[in-house]
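Help! Submission page says 'invalid entity' but I think these are all valid:
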Amino acid sequence: MSNKPRKMTLEKKHNLTGWAFLAPAIFLIAVFSFWPMIKALVLSFQTGKGTNMQMAGFTNYIRMFQDDVFIQSIKNTFFYFILQVPIMLAVALVLACILNKKDLRFKGFFRTMIFLPCTTSLVAYSIIFRSLFANNGLVNYVLVNFGILDKPYNFLTQPFAAKMVIILALLWRWTGYNMVFFLSGLQNIEYSVYEAAKIDGASAIQTFFKITVPLLKPTILLTAIMSTNGTLQLFDESINLTDGGPANASISMSHYIYNLCFKYVPNFGYAAAMSFFILLLVAVLAFIQMRVGDKRD
Amino acid sequence: MIKKMKNIGMYAFLILVTFISVFPLYWMVSASTNKSVDVSKGVLSFGSHLGENLKNLLANQDVGAALVNSFKYAILLTIVSMVICSLAGYGFEIYHDKAKDAVMGVILLAMMVPFITILVPLFQMVAKMKMLNSTLGFILPTVSTPFLIMMFRQSARSFPHNIIEAARLDGLSEIRIFFQMFIPTMKSTYAAAMTITFMNAWNSYMWPKVIMTQSKSMTMPMVVANLTEGYVTDYGMLMLAVLICTLPTALVFFILQKNFAEGITGAVK
């Protein structure tokens, strides 16, 4: 950098301008994403309260796998993940295919209505579902009045039912969101491909599995990774819909970590170890999905 | 005949999904105009209790302050975020070389980092910088996001290079090319990015819950969540709060809807 600015070649000048464009963004990501991540890693090997922290090796990591609530939260998160993500992506894909049909009427109307749930905040829809499924909520009212139940069923205080309500809520909120990604992916597929398939006598189901799914693979991969990421970090729903209850039966991993940091007596080191476990899970699952996604080529 | 049956099945499916999507929202609106007892009795029509619910809500929580806070945080975050992320996305694409592409790869890794992982150190940092309960504390951690940078980089790819060359020959500085040429042509990308950022900022819950320790700094979602504490829930009042919390993001979406779809399409390509 000994050259005076006026002596710089044009290429060098543009190179520096480029870095100047990037500088604020890179600085902020480094300071507010990567630096805290390194600090969290260090923290995860420490125990203690407040500023009085000591190195403790792998104690936190060993302890968390003996922690019943943490094990429960992992099980819950995987329960949500395994049930919700495939159903949601399948329904979203089918909806996108229908809405992509050339001769469909009221396309814009259906698309907007199905996307509508995505405009609600996570807290807001959690509370709507909590109210709908409450003991004196609308769902119970309907079930009792139609004679399906004798008396109100308390969905949110039954371990299995509470988890199912969370899954229903997640499906409601996110299906339309994923549908939009599929719709824009479908627009990149030439219509003539479908016409050729039709002439060759392919059925709708064959067209779907032999043309749509393979050509949409990048979008499917993207939505799968985003949904996995989101489900593993589930927080707002767990805290506002069921409050993790009954007795931690529906608590998510992030919710438990939050409780450890800000609700109970703070144990930052232990919480950091758990949060690193989530980071690891996100990375491993994304890696598996990319491998599976590549294989079908 | 079979085709007709198929069509009917298809429309029936769409109508069913539409009903499921819209019904909880309709219920929210109707409940906000009814007495809590009537809501529990399954009344689905609009009532005349809206004013009463509003009075109860305002007496219960400082909704005005929460709304002002939420708007302030979300709007500022959106504006600053647009400037920083679009500058970076443009820079990564237009001036790209090996070093910058490598940096982009590292930045994309940050997308994978769960927020809960950095929550505690971030909280400690913000507390140390005396930024608890402040707009800056709310904004800084999420103002520069890999997702938006990627989105703007993608859209810069379709920005014709000969425009840049022509502008350079005309003697426009690099930063002016960005502001006068790039921004006006990328309106739909900006609209989509603004919609996403505003919605995320308005709806964010974990971070404000951690750093907004005083009630006067609370956001709208926090206020809504607070309303469910206690033994008896006033559904009319609660749903009115949920409605107030939902309206701004719904409005932003409807205003920018057309651009939103175009912008997303550009980003996925």
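Support: the input was valid. A stray whitespace character was the problem, and the output above is from the cleaned input. Chain B touches chain A through 83 residues (CB under 8 Å).
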